[in-house]
């Protein structure tokens, strides 16, 4: 098991990401725990899921055996693909430097200018890698963009507008050119031929939809609209002629300085996506993902009520001297809408599938009530109306009303819903005693009368994580073949067929030398060798055998162990003895690495009751042991977000005592009469950091890049976490975090938290939090930093401009605040601001097993069918002119690894590409709680973890009358992390 799972009280592991979180420990495992699954996702050092409460595997296990879940979900069979990908013969390695140097100085804007690429990196062993990009020829292609203006009341009704656009292109003069027309589902129609809509009298040409055409599409025209009764008028105007030859020139930096590529790229993406979405059985999710829904070859039954569908991501983007398409495999869970025989499901059919029964009359309303959240929000149509009806959301399943007992007035007489449907529509209700569906207002309808709309992506919790991973993770050879043979086939239709390349692009790559990680009694480093199928798998991973933490915890710590027991499963004597033995072993093992606990420890237990009573008990225990050099080890019965959040809220915010969580059946697990010493080692890493120690550091070869005049650079990391689930639709706040280094070891990053308006990405209190981090650095180092390297997580490319306009100036404003605060004549350290984009669809495929270093030595450049950790790509598919690179820093355990995509947005330190790439990779090897390199550079990773912890602190906050959710959250969190522990990495 890996460290993170222990601390969080379980959780699901790490998505698809490949950070290992290896076992460490004295048993000598090279691999370590599962960590986070395959190559995609964030990459986590967490370890396995832990058998959580709702798990189909059961609850505590251990001495009693688990409780089990509903069970019965479909078994997912991992798809097997035998395609062999074809890669381009030529290597795409266009060099943009000469063109960049000819560019004029950027025009002054309200924001800071984005950094341009200064050069390319040169360090490392050169090789070539395949990509999931293909070239797209756009020469001699023109798009005519027409803007459609709708009545004001349709501004927030995107789906209605999309349907009207479809109806519009079925009218003259659009209809004859329909094959070359596409639209963005909102307001823009694109055509590759001009549409003859010119009107000498008006620029905006009106088109009228009759009342008959609008039936089932939108409500009748509202008062005040300038239309005839029941009809609706839109206007169409030619707004832009987009000659793609101009776009092609701009990718070579030959066009006008102020040329805006975005309208051109948007037209290409809309056209491509629109054509794909018109393929039978294909549904698009967002603008770039397309799924084969209800297509037997591409779907599998999944959790009850769901199936898994295969699909593809496709997006067009510019690179230097090229337009390319990024193509990737995608998969998602969808709500079932058809039976095995192909019949469209109604809600009753879906409920039968969900509960695994062929007779819903055997269900009681309590069961329906317990699981109604699955059905809430599902889109349905009412086919019994006899005409096309607009889909409606299932508002509620009301267990108080049934088709048999709910009455309403019809023609002056009271009748039941069941009787009405029989007399009006000749529909006999099979389950008259089941709850009715509430569609809003006074609209109650039987489940059997509502058909489930196909193509609805499921956004709830996935319980069968293994099944999802089995379906979605593919090793690079399989993924490359799938993308090239199937993905391109979907896109290459019509005119696009001769424009889209049929082979995957090849780009140059470099493999950086291994990072040496230092401990108190020695160092560890991978020794590059030729590929042998085994030794290369250890690059970026090691164990803690015979290692001592670089700087052990200075004091002897008193350990206070608290076991949380459930009322139904009180702690038995043999379990108490088991805990005693496990704790003694944990103390002994921790001491070997550098965390000295006193031999005598306290052991208490708390019985879990209701949440309020539990928090009170937790606080009583925490306060009773809140003394210097005391540490609490909480042992939870199973993974439980609510209990974990309560513990962290009490210890981190209210009381101020350092602590750690683990799971009973993991902490006490024995194999061959031995406890899991590897897990204890990783728990010791987390304890060491929290208690002020240092686990491991980079060698001077890497850390010297961050030293200037014997003063370490300050590393900052920032992220924003947005509300999910029920909070995503309400006024729940977002959590922003900034973490900062406190010395040149770069192992400890205390942080600052703030709460801001939900779904706002720009950090509002950036200046304040940066001031706190700089002052903490000053308190530890004794001087102010002269160089600042900032890693920002959680933003995408369209947001870069606003970062340069708001966040980067806010960081610089913090320097001015420090100057005033400390009464200095000047203080203006050099700032480099780097963004890591994690959620992207770029993948790399190794083409060679070995490559030769500059000295002629042959070394492995692939591992587990992936490119090897330390691989850099900064040519071929990177930005036209901006300073970006891809770094694959982690080993993928399954699937295809996802590299980090780094953009240097602002660079006063003038880091050379080799320097920023090398130090970023070095940092990825010293993540504080793992013995492996991680995917996300640690300062950004830590900020993400602190945001998660910030969500824990406000868990359960309920707004009272007249109070916003933000106010409720801030009231619960109070002043934030307690002063007693604010300087520690409480979130690790």
Automatic annotation (TrEMBL):
Pfam families: ArgoL1 (PF08699), ArgoN (PF16486), PAZ (PF02170), Piwi (PF02171). Residues 60-71 have a biased composition (Gly residues). Residues 631-946 form the Piwi domain. Residues 1-10, 17-33, 43-59 have a biased composition (Basic and acidic residues). Residues 1-71 are annotated as: Disordered. InterPro entries: ArgoL1, Argonaute_N, PAZ_dom, PAZ_dom_sf, Piwi, RNaseH-like_sf, RNaseH_sf. Residues 346-454 form the PAZ domain. It comes from the Eukaryota. GO terms for molecular function: RNA binding. Belongs to the argonaute family. This is Piwi domain-containing protein. It comes from [Candida] arabinofermentans NRRL YB-2248.
